[in-house]
Amino acid sequence: MITIYDKKGFVPLLTLEGESLKNRDLTGLHLEEANLVEMDLSGSRLSGSILRHADLRLARLVDTDLSGCDLTGADLSGADLSGARLDGARISDANFTGARLAPDALARAVREQTITVNRIDFGK
After folding, report:
1. Total-model pTM
2. Measuring CA to CA, which of 13, 36, 47, 75 is 20 to 30 A from 25?
3. Three-state DSSP class for 55?
């Protein structure tokens, strides 16, 4: 069993069967202020999920579908978003400091949004 808690660690937001969050269909979940620090969500589909103010520091989001997600105010510092899809994601006030992602992924997310970009590792 995997339980995802709020950032303070007191309120369970979601409990799932299994031992891993990799390659899971997590489409449309409401995980506002979720604690996802250092979680491995590689290959998972989170499209349309609400992750406002979620803590995704150092999370592994390789090849994760975050299209249409609300990442407003989320902390993705140090996260690995290599190959992640961010098409249409809301990323206002999100922290990508030290995050690893492809420049084109970020470009697709920022259409019609005003954001500040600082210290992103675009890798090779």
Report:
1. 0.85
2. 75
3. strand
